[in-house]
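Quick check before the chapter quiz. The format below is the same one you will see on the exam, so make sure you can read both the input and the output lines.
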Amino acid sequence: MRPGTRVAYVLGTVTGGTGEHVAMLARGSQERGLAVTVYGPAQAGRRLLAGVPFVPVEIADRPRPARDAAAVLRLRKLLAGAQPEVVHAHGLRAGAVAAFALAGAGWRRRRGALIVTVHNAPPAAGPARAVYAVLERIVARRADAVTCVSGDLAARMRRLGAAGAGLAIVPAPEARAPGSEAVAAARSGLGVAGQPVVLAVGRLAPQKGFATLLAAAASWQGREPCPVLALAGAGPLDQILRAEAGAGGIRVRFLGQRGDVPALLAAADVVVVPSRWEGQPLIVHEALRAGRPLVASRAGGIPDLTGEDAALLVPPGDAAALAEAVLAVLDHPGLAARLSEAARARAAALPGEAAAVDAALALYQRISGRPAAV
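Here is the expected output.
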């Protein structure tokens, strides 16, 4: 795109890698000469967006009518003043807020375009499911282009009539490999001398499937040496999972939120991603890049990342299959070595940050001259 093209990024959450993805695109676009502004919750600006123009717009993470209406009106005023040629919203809620903010703005009919990247599947049940069904339809109808983090989401949005509904590239942030001292310190901190380490990393929330992982771990408690499950992350299920582990006599190290995930990965004997659904989870990228043996759910976009060779894939929610796969890796060094080699090869073949920015800019170029959706 030509230098100076105005691009507005809109986000409503920084969880699940969404914030890191927006920060990567914003910085990459700015480095290519585009005039970038990010709009979203103040915490996003504080945490992720140093060096990128940022304007707070408090888009709620769940339906809150009064706050949602205020966010639409504020964003409408800000976009009318900035007149971006492309508005790229991330997430269904941010996409719907951006669509309503753009509605009726005369400048948009002349030159603006709305892209929405869908990062998560809607809830499988409960009252929020109906709300997200409405948001999906708003985004499908109003966006000039939709990108999705997994093939199943793209198919879902195409069925709703979304334009394009192709795949977004969501690479993990580039990170330096940990040194040997950092790896030794991570393993020593686990207190697991002579015991294999099974590592899982993620938000302690229902989507991540950690209850299934605990059920799987219960089946190997009688082994010698007993594998130790290390769980890094924080979230609403923290106390529930601790109670389940205690009641079942399951050896779990609850590590909390950690800043040394690369060192933990290098210290682990096997990495487990037991999610019920995922798009392009950063922990899978990171495990592949680290060359770790990986066991993961065959869910969402995970198989697209790993292929059939770089992980043992099991049905989501199947504790017996998960335990069998983990123990297969621990009991068979040849299998672990093959998975490690395949993981590194797969990581080398996956697109990186430069490719993600290239793809986004190509999409901006392609749709910025189209008439806006109505």
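If your answer matched, good. The chain has a mean pLDDT of 90.
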